Amino acid sequence: MAKRPPPQPWHPAPYEDADTAAIQALIAGNANASQQQRALVWIINVLCGTYDQPYRPGSDRDTVFACAKQFVGQQIVKQTKVARE
């Protein structure tokens, strides 16, 4: 079952201990392939909510905040698909 996005875009993103370990290994420069993938999947899907609906009823500001988070995720995804010269 898919996790629901936090009700407010500024709430901390849900995470598991393995997500934290993957992010910490990534920043330390010693993440294995599985940890690298887990870290990016968490950043793109959970933290940024890249594929979630950004609309937040009742507040333009909340919607804009969610859109800004999505923009970061979209830029990361874009970099995974851009052809290298």
Task: Walk me through the structure.
The chain is mostly helical. It has three helices and no strands. The longest helix has 22 residues, at 60-81. The radius of gyration is 14 Å and the shape is flat.
Question: For this entry, what is the oligomeric state of its chains?
Answer: single chain
Q: Describe the biggest sheet?
A: none
Number of domains as seen in the coordinates: 1
Strand-pairing-aware structural class:
mainly alpha
Q: How are helices and strands ordered from N to C?
A: HHH
Would you identify the regions where 5 or more consecutive residues have pLDDT less than 50? none
Query: Number of helix segments?
Result: 3
Q: In percent, how helical is the residue content?
A: 55-70%
User: What is the mean pLDDT?
Assistant: 92
Q: Mind telling me the C-alpha Rg?
A: 14 Å
Count the strands? 0
> How far is the first residue's CA from the last residue's CA?
40 Å
Strand content: under 5%
Shape: flat
Summed up:
With 85 residues, this protein is an all-alpha fold.
Topology record:
Blueprint: H1 17-28, H2 33-47, H3 60-81
